[in-house]
Write a structure and sequence with these properties.
By secondary structure, the chain is of the alpha+beta class. Helix content is 21%, strand content 23%. The protein is built from 17 helices and 44 strands. Strands 1, 2, 8, 11, 14, 15, 16, 20, 23 and 25 form a ten-stranded mixed sheet that branches. Strands 22-21-24-19-44 form a five-stranded mixed sheet, with no helix packed on it. The structure holds 2-acetamido-2-deoxy-beta-D-glucopyranose (7 copies). The site of one 2-acetamido-2-deoxy-beta-D-glucopyranose (NAG) has 2 residues, from loops. The site of one 2-acetamido-2-deoxy-beta-D-glucopyranose has 4 residues, from loops.
C-alpha cells in the first residue's frame, strides 16, 4: 500500500450505566418528504411509522407524476408511487430550512423510475448536496430502487439538495429525508468532508427486511446480507450494548445477528472474506469502511475467538482482535483508501483461535471533499427576495454563485478566496420587471454593478441604493420611474464614484423639481383606445374567415383516407405491389376473412396486435387471423412493407404467415394455427387441463425456440431482431413443437398497449427488455438473447418474468435476480418448477440454468449468440435423455459437490467463497 494508513480500533469500555445509549433519539427534526405527492398532503408510513408529507414547502419547480400502474405493487413503499420530475432548468433544488449551522445531518434521497413518463427510458443525472457534488444517479431499470445517502455538517442554516441535469435525461426523485445526527457520531464526517454511503449491511438475515426507524433511532437503513451456504448465521436474543461514547450507535437488533464461515475446521485457519469494487471505476473514489463486530456466544474458558483483519494486503486492525461479548465493538479506518481495482477485506483467525471469525455489520462510505463554500447568506436571502418579488423566470435555482458551472445567469460573484462568495454584478436589463425598485437590492452589499435598464419599473428610486459601498454602475435607463433622483446618488455620480444612467424615464425629474404627470396620463389613455379598436376588428374578421374556410373544407376532410397501393407518395411500395405477383396470392380481402372466420365467430385471443380469430381456409387448413382496425396511413404502409418481408420467411420453428389483408382500414395477418396455444398458457397451467410440461418437453420447446431465433438472426437477409421474445410469442402445435410468433411484427405494429413503446424508446415487454438496450437504445441480436434467457428461466422455474416477493417488505423482483440469488446458495431445487415433482435430470437443469443466466448477462458482449445457445441446449437434451432417470437419485445429493461434467461451469458464485459486498441481485430495497 503506497500511502501509510493508520487504523484504529474502537474497543468497548465496560461501564454498566451505558446500556441503551442508542436510546430513544427524539424524532423531532426529522423531515420526510414524499416527492410528487399530490397537493398539500401527508400520511403516516406504516413500516417506519414516520409521517411523510408533500414537498410544497421545499420546492416550487417540477411536476408530479404517478409511476406506471405496471410497477405498483401492494408491498411497494408508498413514497415510490409518485415522483417529482424536472424537465425545466439545469439545476432544481429542494431547500430544507431550520438546520443548525455546524450540526451534523443525514440526508437520504430515493429514486424509482417506474416508467412515470411513459417513455420507458434510462436516465443519468447528478445529485449535489449544498454546493458540492454528491453522487451520479444512474437509473437503468424501471423497477430498481436507488438510495443515495450522505452524512454532512451543515455549512449554513439550510441545506439544498439539487438534481442536476447532465444531458442524459430528465432528473426525478421519489423521496427525500433529513435526519439530525449527534455531532459525536461518524466523526469522520466534518466540515471539510462528508460521507456518502456505498453500503450498509446487516450480516446474517436471509430475508429481505431492511432495518430502519424505529429500530434504528437515527433511521439509517441496514440491508440484510448473507452468503449461504458459505456463511452461517449466529444470533442472540440478548441485548447488544453500545459502548460509552459510541461513535456509531449501531442498534442492538442489527448487532444481534452475525455471520461466520460454515465448516470452519480447523477454526484457527478459517476466514471470512468479501470485497467491493470502485464505483464508478473511472472516478477512483476514496473509501472508508466500518466493521461492526460483537461476540454473541457465551465463551467458555478454553474458547477463544481471535482474528486479524486485513484490507487487501495491509493490516486493517492493528493486531489480533477479539470482539467482546454483547458489546458493540467497531474496527474502522480513518484514512481513506483508493487506487485499487477491488477492495478485499479478510477476517482471518489467528493460530491460537478456537473459533472462526465473525462479523455483525459493515458500512462502506465514499469520502466527499467539501470544496465549495456557499454564497454569503445575506446575499442569498436578498437575491431570493428579488427573484420572488419580480417573479423572475430564469434558471435561478440552488446556490447563486456555486458551483461556478451552475452560477445563476445575470450575476457575477467574487471568488471565495476567503469566506463566502459575494454577488458583485447583477444584470436584469430587459427582464420585464414591473413594480417598484425593491430595497432588497440594497442588501446585496458587495454589489458593484446593478443594471435594471429597459424594464417597466415604477415609483421612485430608493435612496438606500446610495448606501451600497462598492456600487460603481447603476443603470436605470428605459423604465417608468418617477420622482426625483436621491441626492446621495447624484452626489456620488457627480464625484465620479458612480456611473448613473437614468435616461428614458419620462416622469423622472433630474433636478429635483416637480413633474407634470396628469398630462402624460391622458395621452397614454388615448393611445390605448386607438390601439384596442383596430385589434378587435381584425379579430372579428379573422374569426369569420376561419368559419368560412371551415365550411368549404369540410366535405373534403371527411373523406375516408384511402389506402392506395399506387399511392404516388410511396413509390417503393406501389412498385413492389405491382411487380410481385406471388404476393397477390397472399392478399385477402375483408370479405375473404369474414368467410374464413365464419363471420369472426371464434375469438381465440387478444393481444397487443388486436383480436385473434380462428379460421379455416377453403382447402381445410386451420389458420389464426389477427385483426386490427382503425390504423393510420403510415401504419398501414409500414405494415405492407413488413408483411411482404415476412411472407418470404419460412422455417420449421417460425409461425408462418399465410397471408394478410389491408382492406377497409383493417389490417389482418393470416397465420398458421397453433393448436396448443402459447408457452405462456402452459407455464401458467392454462393448457392441457393444467397438466404441467415435463422437463423433456420444456427443454425441447426451449431448443425449438432457440433455433427459430437463430434463424431470424442468421438465416434471414437482412437479419431480423424479434424485439419481443416472451412466452406469449412462443406457440405450440399439436405435437408440442414450438414456433416463434410475431417476429418483425413489433416493427409493423406499434400498438398503444403499454408493452410497446414509441419509436425512440425501447420496444418490448416489461421483464424481458434487455437492460443494455433500454439504456442505450441500440438494438442488437443480443437483446433477443437476453429476452430468451428470461424465457428459459421461466421454463425452468415456472415463475413469471417478474416475481412478487413474499416477505413483509418484499417487492417484485425479476426472475433473473431471483434465480441468481437462490443459485448463489447452491441449491438448484429451490428454483426448479415444483410442478415437475423432481422428475428431471439435475445436470440437464443445471446446464440450462447456466445457459439462461449467461443469456441474461447485463453486458450484451458477455451473452452467447443464439447459435451457441442452440449447441448448449442440445447438450441439455442429451443429458436428460442419457440420464435414464430414477426420481430420487439426485434429491438431497446436490450439496455433496456439484454434478460432474459441463454443468459445473458458469455459476461461479458457488465455487467461490469470496462474496461481493454488492451481490448480484442482492437484497431488495424497500
Ligand atoms: C399546507 O399545509 C400546511 C399545514 O397544514 C399549512 O400551514 C399551509 O398553509 C398549507 N399550504 C397550502 C398551500 O395549502
Ligand atoms: C396520482 O394518483 C392519485 C391517487 O390515485 C391522484 O389523486 C393524483 O391526482 C395522481 N397524480 C397525478 C399527477 O396524476
Ligand atoms: C449506468 O448503468 C448501466 C447499467 O448498470 C451501465 O451499463 C452504464 O455504464 C452506467 N452509466 C454510467 C455513466 O455510469
Ligand atoms: C449466556 O449467559 C447468560 C447469563 O449467564 C444467559 O442469560 C444467556 O442465555 C447465555 N446465552 C447463551 C447463548 O447461552
Ligand atoms: C495476525 O497479526 C499478527 C500481528 O500483526 C501477526 O503476528 C500474525 O502472524 C497474524 N496472524 C495471521 C494468522 O495472519
Ligand atoms: C498463543 O498462545 C500461546 C500459549 O498460550 C502464547 O504463548 C502465544 O503468545 C499466543 N500467540 C498469540 C499470537 O497470541
Ligand atoms: C412594459 O409594459 C407594457 C404594457 O404595460 C408592455 O407593452 C411593454 O413591452 C413593457 N416593457 C418592457 C420593457 O417590458
Amino acid at each position: 500500500m503506497s500511502t501509510m494508513v493508520v487504523w484504529f480500533v474502537f474497543l468497548a469500555i465496560m461501564f454498566l450505566n451505558n446500556a441503551g445509549v442508542a436510546g430513544q433519539a427524539d424524532d423531532t427534526g426529522f423531515v420526510s418528504i414524499d416527492c410528487g405527492l399530490a397537493g398539500n398532503s401527508s400520511y403516516k408510513d406504516a413500516s417506519s411509522t414516520l409521517t411523510y408529507s408533500s414537498e410544497e414547502a421545499f420546492i416550487d419547480t417540477g411536476t408530479n407524476h404517478n409511476i406506471s400502474a405496471a410497477y405498483v405493487t401492494s408491498t411497494l413503499s408508498p413514497h415510490y408511487l409518485n415522483v417529482r420530475s424536472f424537465s425545466n432548468g439545469i439545476r432544481n433544488c429542494y431547500t430544507i430550512r431550520s438546520l443548525v449551522k455546524g450540526e451534523k445531518y443525514l440526508v437520504r434521497a430515493t429514486f424509482m423510475y417506474g416508467n412515470y413518463d411513459g417513455l420507458n427510458k434510462g436516465v443519468i443525472f447528478d445529485l449535489h448536496i449544498g454546493v458540492n457534488y454528491w453522487k451520479t444517479v444512474n437509473i437503468s431499470n424501471p423497477d430498481k430502487r436507488t438510495i443515495a445517502e450522505v452524512i454532512f455538517v451543515a455549512p449554513v442554516d439550510y441545506i439544498q439538495v439539487c438534481l442536476v441535469n447532465t444531458g442524459l435525461g430528465t432528473p426525478f426523485i421519489s423521496s427525500l429525508d433529513l435526519r439530525p445526527m449527534k455531532n459525536s457520531l461518524y466523526p469522520l464526517a466534518n466540515s471539510s468532508q462528508s460521507l456518502a454511503l456505498q453500503h450498509r449491511l446487516n450480516a446474517g438475515p436471509t430475508d429481505t427486511t431492511i432495518i430502519r426507524y424505529p429500530d434504528d433511532p437515527h433511521d439509517r437503513m441496514w440491508e440484510p446480507w448473507s452468503n449461504y451456504p458459505y456463511w452461517t448465521e449466529i444470533t442472540t436474543s440478548s441485548h447488544v450494548q453500545n459502548v460509552q461514547n459510541d461513535i456509531f450507535e449501531v442498534p442492538s437488533v442489527v448487532l444481534q445477528t452475525a455471520v461466520t464461515p460454515v465448516n470452519a475446521t480447523p477454526a484457527n485457519t478459517s476466514e471470512l472474506k468479501f470485497f467491493w469494487l470502485p464505483d464508478p471505476p473511472d472516478k477512483d473514489p476514496e473509501y472508508l469502511a466500518n466493521l461492526h463486530v460483537s461476540e454473541l456466544m457465551n465463551l467458555t474458558k478454553d474458547q477463544k475467538r481471535e482474528f486479524n483483519i486485513t484490507l487487501n494486503d495491509a493490516m486493517f486492525s492493528p493486531g489480533p482482535f477479539s470482539p467482546e461479548p454483547l458489546y458493540a465493538n467497531a474496527v474502522y479506518g480513518f484514512k481513506p483508501v483508493h487506487g485499487r481495482q477491488q477492495y478485499i477485506l479478510t477476517l482471518k483467525a489467528t493460530a491460537n483461535s478456537t473459533l472462526p471469525p465473525i462479523i455483525n455489520a459493515v458500512e462502506v462510505f465514499v469520502v466527499l471533499q467539501v470544496s465549495g463554500i456557499p454564497t454569503d447568506s445575506a446575499d442569498v436571502s436578498a437575491i431570493n427576495t428579488i427573484k420572488s418579488q419580480y417573479q423572475i423566470k430564469r434558471d435561478w435555482y440552488g446556490d447563486p454563485c456555486v458551483p461556478k458551472t451552475y452560477a445563476w445567469d445575470g450575476l457575477n460573484c467574487s471568488d471565495a478566496v476567503s469566506g463566502s462568495p459575494r454577488i458583485t454584478v447583477l444584470r436584469l436589463a430587459s427582464s420585464g420587471l414591473t413594480g417598484e425598485v425593491t430595497n432588497a437590492f440594497a442588501n446585496l452589499k458587495a454589489l458593484q454593478t446593478l443594471d435594471l435598464s429597459h424594464n417597466n419599473l415604477t415609483g421612485s428610486i430608493p435612496a438606500v441604493l446610495s448606501e451600497l459601498p462598492s456600487l460603481a454602475l447603476l443603470d436605470l435607463t428605459g423604465n417608468k420611474l418617477n420622482g426625483s433622483i436621491p441626492s446621495a446618488l447624484l452626489k456620488k455620480s457627480k464625484d465620479g464614484s458612480l456611473t448613473l444612467r437614468v435616461a428614458d424615464n419620462a416622469d423622472l425629474c433630474y433636478d429635483g423639481t416637480e413633474c407634470n404627470q396628469s398630462k402624460k396620463k391622458s395621452n397614454s389613455s388615448k393611445i390605448t383606445i386607438a390601439i384596442i379598436v383596430p385589434i378587435v376588428v381584425v379579430l372579428i374578421l379573422a374569426a369569420a374567415g376561419i368559419l368560412i374556410i371551415c365550411k368549404f373544407r369540410r366535405p373534403g376532410s371527411s373523406k375516408k383516407p384511402s389506402i392506395n397501393p399506387q399511392n404516388p407518395e410511396n413509390p417503393d411500395i406501389s412498385s413492389t405491389m405491382n411487380t410481385s405477383l406471388q404476393l397477390e396470392n397472399h392478399q385477402f380481402t375483408y370479405r375473404d376473412l369474414k368467410q374464413i372466420t365464419n363471420n369472426f365467430q371464434r375469438e381465440i385471443g387478444r393481444g397487443g396486435f388486436g383480436v385473434v380469430y380462428r379460421g379455416c381456409l377453403v382447402d381445410g387448413t386451420q389458420v389464426a387471423v389477427k385483426m386490427q382496425c382503425d390504423r393510420s396511413t403510415q401504419e398501414v404502409n409500414d405494415f405492407m412493407v413488413e408483411a411482404q418481408h415476412l411472407i418470404r420467411i419460412h422455417h420449421r420453428n417460425l409461425v408462418s404467415l399465410v397471408g394478410y389483408c389491408n382492406d377497409q382500414n383493417c389490417l389482418a395477418l393470416v397465420l398458421e394455427y397453433m393448436s396448443e396455444g402459447s408457452l405462456q398458457d402452459h407455464l401458467r397451467g392454462r393448457a392441457r387441463g393444467g397438466q404441467p410440461l415435463t422437463w423433456r418437453e420444456r427443454i425441447q420447446i426451449a431448443l425449438d425456440s432457440a433455433i427459430g431465433l437463430q434463424y431470424l438472426h442468421k438465416g434471414c437477409n437482412p437479419p431480423l431482431i424479434h424485439q419481443d421474445v416472451k412466452p406469449n410469442n412462443i406457440l405450440l402445435n399439436a405435437k408440442l413443437e414450438a414456433k416463434i410468433a410475431d417476429f418483425g411484427v413489433s416493427k409493423a405494429f406499434r400498438s398503444n398497449e403499454d408493452t410497446h413503446v414509441s419509436v425512440s424508446s425501447p420496444v418490448g415487454t416489461k421483464g424481458y427488455i434487455d437492460p443494455e438496450y433500454f439504456m442505450t437504445l441500440r438494438l442488437t441480436e443480443k437483446s433477443d438473447v437476453y429476452s430468451f434467457g428470461v424465457v428459459l428461466l421461466q421454463i425452468i422455474t415456472g415463475q413469471p418474468a417478474i416475481i412478487e416477493g413474499t416477505g413483509p417488505n418484499s417487492e417484485y423482483v425479476n426472475v433473473t435476480a431471483w434465480v441468481r440469488q437462490r443459485l448463489s446458495r447452491g441449491n438448484i431445487e429451490s428454483v426448479v418448477d415444483a410442478r415437475m415433482q423432481g422428475d428431471y435430470d439435475i445436470n440437464s437443469v443445471w446446464k440450462a440454468a447456466d445457459v439462461a443466466l449467461k443469456c441474461s448477462a447485463e453486458n450484451g458482449a458477455h451473452r452467447p449468440t443464439m447459435t451457441e445457445v442452440v449447441v448448449q441446449l442440445k447438450e441439455c437434451i442429451e443429458l436428460e435423455v442419457a440420464a435414464g432417470r430414477n426420481h430420487n437419485i439426485y434429491s438431497g445429493n446436490s450439496s455433496n459437490g456439484h454434478p460432474s461434467g459441463v454443468c459445473q461451469n458458469g455459476i461461479h458464485a458457488i465455487e467461490q467463497q469470496l462474496v461481493s459486498i454488492t451481490m448480484a441481485g442482492g437484497p431488495i430495497m424497500r
